[in-house]
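Tokens for chain A. Residues wanted.
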């Protein structure tokens, strides 16, 4: 890595989860993280934990020479050597993705997120990107559902009337989910997680949320939570696009592609005793690996350009693979997930030009995410956006520093 101190080799960064209190949260996330006593907590006192932020700019590194430093700080110092050339060109030296777990003990608000163009023009001071996101459902109570988009084309006046009358959910598509369900929310999609659902979320690095409807709920201060109706309607897709569940696509190396978007891809691997999931990092994008359940070991492949100590992963462990590794291998018996652009694509294709191979061994489930290049036009995205109307290209957000919110 050219941005590294002289003689220092890149290595996988194990990240510390951060717990976020939400009025709709529950008790599961602390239990999932072994009690959570040593983890930082954010949000109003008295509210339950609703989110665990596994990877974002504020995440703190747990291992190696960078232990104690934040990902945002390292991104500013190392630039494309950490985040990859594609995110760096698109956003500048900042963390492009946010990975989290959600525990919806009660229903979340009905909300919507803007795209990058709107965020840059109308929310520049916030420091946030626009926000497209995807959910991978981990567990769901019988009959649990999410709200996604409108049943039919509608208007702002109709939406305002439904909000005033408390009937907005009746205008929306109700989609039942179960473990393994995947829901993609492009920027502009009005949506809500229903009660009794636990999920993994990968998204652009933003917490910019506009709330349309909140079930008459009050916050920890006893006051109704703020709505953002004007901004919501400025960015919301009112066209009534039907929800579609797309099947996973097999990839090489033991992975399957769950989501492929211009902003990120999401892959999954299911390890069992004796099985291996293999991948490779390229200079184009970092990758995020999260162990959802089981145990796994992440280690460099035999031909990797850089040698580093194997990492033993437990449920909730998240590792950032810097683009400078130029190839990585993951071993274990668990599910793993990766986030990032073309890195994930080449990883699954076995492209070893940069020498960043890795393997995962173990017995469990892994998710992986990365950021794809702008020329990688994806049918899944283009078909949806053709129905929704044109979406803006990613804006150049180099001048924006990371900021944090919490409006869900």
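Reply:
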């Amino acid at each position: 890595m050219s941005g590294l101190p002289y003689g220092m080799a890149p290595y996988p960064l194990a990240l510390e989860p951060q717990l976020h209190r939400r009025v709709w949260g529950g008790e599961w996330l602390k239990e999932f993280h072994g009690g959570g006593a040593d983890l930082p907590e954010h949000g109003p006192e008295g509210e339950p934990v609703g989110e665990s932020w596994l990877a974002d700019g504020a995440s703190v590194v747990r291992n190696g020479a960078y232990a104690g430093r934040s990902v945002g700080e390292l991104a500013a110092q190392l630039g494309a050597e950490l985040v990859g050339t594609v995110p760096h060109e698109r956003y500048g030296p900042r963390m492009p993705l946010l990975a989290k777990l959600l525990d919806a003990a009660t229903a979340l608000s009905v909300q919507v997120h803007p795209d990058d163009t709107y965020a840059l023009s109308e929310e520049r001071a916030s420091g946030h990107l626009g926000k497209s996101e995807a959910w991978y459902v981990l567990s769901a109570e019988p009959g649990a559902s999410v709200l996604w988009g409108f049943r039919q084309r509608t208007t702002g006046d109709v939406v305002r009337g439904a909000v005033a009358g408390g009937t907005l959910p009746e205008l929306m598509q109700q989609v039942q989910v179960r473990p393994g369900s995947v829901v993609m929310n492009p920027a502009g999609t009005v949506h809500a997680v229903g009660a009794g659902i636990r999920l993994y979320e990968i998204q652009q690095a933003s917490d910019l949320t506009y709330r349309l409807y909140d079930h008459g709920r009050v916050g920890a201060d006893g006051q109704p939570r703020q709505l953002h109706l004007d901004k919501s309607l400025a960015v919301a897709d009112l066209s009534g696009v039907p929800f579609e569940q797309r099947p996973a696509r097999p990839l090489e190396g033991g992975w399957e592609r769950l989501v492929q978007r211009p902003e990120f891809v999401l892959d999954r691997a299911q390890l069992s005793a004796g099985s291996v999931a293999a991948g490779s990092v390229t200079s184009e994008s970092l990758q995020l690996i999260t162990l959802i359940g089981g145990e796994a070991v992440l280690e460099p492949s035999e031909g990797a350009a850089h040698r580093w100590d194997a990492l033993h992963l437990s449920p909730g462990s998240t590792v950032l693979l810097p683009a400078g590794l130029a190839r990585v291998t993951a071993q274990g018996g668990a599910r793993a997930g990766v986030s990032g652009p073309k890195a994930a694509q080449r990883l699954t294709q076995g492209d070893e030009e940069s020498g960043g191979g890795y393997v995962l061994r173990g017995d469990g489930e892994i998710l992986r995410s990365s950021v794809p290049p702008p020329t990688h036009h994806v049918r899944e995205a283009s078909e949806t956006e053709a129905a929704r109307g044109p979406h803006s290209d990613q804006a150049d957000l180099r001048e924006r520093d990371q900021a944090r919110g919490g409006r869900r």
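The first helix runs from residue 28 to 32. The CA atoms of residues 90 and 351 lie 23 Å apart.
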